[in-house]
Design a protein that fits this description.
single chain, alpha+beta, Rossmann fold, eight-stranded mixed β-sheet, four-stranded antiparallel β-sheet, 35% helix
Length: 420
């Protein structure tokens, strides 16, 4: 017989303490259930907020679309233009194939390390790249070649660039002076012919125009980045600075965006006191050297397309040998704007020489020499070394096996200086 039938206790089964505890725990709300209820409550509260936020964003997008319409491609614009628009005809008053003549400078640009011939001359490749970056080609004007050949080459170009360097006397000075006078004569005759003069070029033009070869003063401005301080109330209309964005123009006066590398210059006072200089040029900017001595840094001719820089616009983008050359994006823009202005002036030249003569004299007929491993000076140079003669017998001073001399290919067989 089952035991519960024998018991005197009520017929309801006895509940253990542990069972009672279990029953009690089941009857109370759990912690997880409370959390779930709270989450549901917050969800209900967030819904109206999100709806309101969505409405605000929709209104904001609508307002933005009204005030700042999206940028559309030409094909997305609703107009009546043909589906395949034609390009406008080129301006017949402009020359879209300009060529710039660059005057070579005595030496090899590397203190004789590359070529020690006494008649060697060079053009730093940075000047060539400077011109090419704005859409022009280059013909080298070799300073010590026969004058008639030099002037024949002038007939092939649409502008001239005088580079930096050190030579202020002798044949180089005489050649630069002859070219400059010829350029002025052509402009006087109605033929637009621009000139850029950089560093030494600035100094030589100062000497030529002032008619005073002792007019320059000494300055401490080697390997120096500097600002350009514009003259008060100066108008930049029609000058090299005309196309500069306003922000970049302002930075020229506050940031060191230009490269100075010279021992000589001229103060604004001395410049203005010389009647020839002050009547020919107007001063655009001044700069200060390491000793805070002020000198004229940019000038433009009043009646000719001639601009001269005491600073180096070409170095920012194309030279790496000096530690203080600025290479920031703003500095590169300075280089590009200055180059663009020069070539835009050259396009106004209507001189269109025979294409074959131009091709025969382009600097592409020469190869640049890399000299940047020395860690100073130029990175690349074009060297021009005409054969020297002795007793009517041609000899060569350390020539390469194959070299282009003034458009003539010369092949040599030895390097001893013997006739070849």
């Amino acid at each position: 017989m089952s035991s519960h039938f024998l018991s005197n206790s009520p017929s309801t089964p006895t509940t253990k303490a542990s069972d009672r505890q279990n029953d009690t725990s089941v009857s109370l709300p759990s912690t997880s259930t409370s959390s779930s209820i709270s989450t549901d409550m917050w969800n209900y509260l967030w819904i109206p907020f999100l709806i309101s936020l969505s409405k605000e964003l929709t209104l904001a997008r609508s307002a933005t679309a009204t005030t700042s319409p999206s940028i559309l491609l030409p094909s997305q614009l609703a107009d009546d233009s043909p589906s395949a628009p034609r390009c406008p005809a080129p301006d017949t008053n402009l020359n879209y194939r300009p060529v710039i003549g660059i005057l070579s400078h005595p030496g090899d640009g590397a203190s004789g390390r590359l070529n020690n011939a006494t008649n060697a001359s060079y053009i730093a490749a940075s000047y060539v790249k400077f011109v090419e970056s704005a859409g022009a080609r280059v013909i080298p004007l070799i300073y010590n070649e026969p004058r008639e050949i030099l002037f024949e080459k002038l007939n092939l170009v649409n502008g001239v660039l005088f580079t930096g360097g050190w030579a202020k006397t002798g044949l180089y000075f005489d050649t630069a002076k002859a070219i400059f006078k010829e350029v002025l004569a052509r402009n006087d005759a109605g033929f637009h012919f621009p000139v850029y003069a950089i560093c030494l070029g600035f100094e030589i033009l100062t000497m030529i125009i002032s008619e005073d070869n002792q007019i320059l003063e000494t300055y401490n401005a080697t390997d120096q980045a500097s600002t350009l301080q514009f003259m008060e109330n100066i108008s930049i209309e029609g000058t090299v600075f005309q196309r500069f964005p306003p922000v970049l123009l302002k930075k020229l006066s506050t940031d060191c965006l230009v490269m100075q590398n010279h021992h000589y210059g001229i103060s604004p006072q001395r410049f203005q006191e010389n009647e020839h200089l002050s009547s020919f040029f107007k001063i655009l900017t001044n700069s200060a050297d390491e000793d805070n001595q002020v000198y004229v840094s940019t000038v433009q001719a009043r009646s000719y397309p001639v601009t001269a820089f005491q600073w180096h616009p070409e170095k920012n983008a194309f030279e790496w040998g000096l530690s203080m050359i600025p290479h920031s994006e703003d500095a590169i823009q300075v280089t590009q704007h200055v180059a663009n202005f020069f070539v835009s002036e050259a396009r106004k030249s209507l001189n269109r020489p025979p294409a074959r003569k131009v091709l025969d004299n382009l600097i592409y007929n020469y190869s640049p020499t890399y000299c940047g491993k020395a860690g100073k000076g130029y990175d690349e140079v074009y060297i021009f070394a005409e054969p020297e003669t002795s007793n009517n017998t041609s000899i060569y001073i350390t020539p390469p096996p194959i070299k282009m001399y003034y458009g003539i290919l010369v092949i040599t067989h030895n390097f001893t200086g013997d006739p070849v």
